[in-house]
Hints:
Helix content is 38%, strand content 23%.
Amino acid sequence: xxxxxxxxxxxxxxxxxxxxxxxxxxxxxxxxxxxxxxxxxxxxxxxxxxxxxxxxxxxxxxxxxxxxxxxxxxxxxxxxxxxxxxxxxxxxxxxxxxxxxxxxxxxxxxxxxxxxxxxxxxxxxxxxxxxxxxxxxxxxxxxxxxxxxxxxxxxxxxxxxxxxxxxxxxxxxxxxxxxxxxxxxxxxxxxxxxxx
Length: 196
């Protein structure tokens, strides 16, 4: 990772921790804790899933900006929409975007159900309620490239996959380690683009 990117990621962690005193953005106790736990997880996930990503990425329920802000730093050629219904969290993301000089991310305060992803987008869900709820929350006026769910690789996730079987036209498992914990990206294909 380039030095400039690493500086920005560390600054992002500091911004989150600083604003966390005013708004509830994270349970992390320090900026370093936030960096080591959450930002590093987004880094590991990005390395694993990068070949599968579209240039257009929609981060659904982005909260403090994970993974959208991190990926905007790592991938300046991507165009990222960071969607969350919480006005305060989006206000923080806009502040972070200015502070970090990011041009390729657009924080949007709206419900996921009201946002139409650009054609051919990768749509990302991190810390979202469930795979089934995420898949059902999207309006499908446009065809997307794929849906990506970040999960722990555990029994709960296996159960979510089983429960969402009727929604899963096709899916793949992308396993990775983050902080010595088994993690998983469940990639669902849009049924119009099942050959991607």
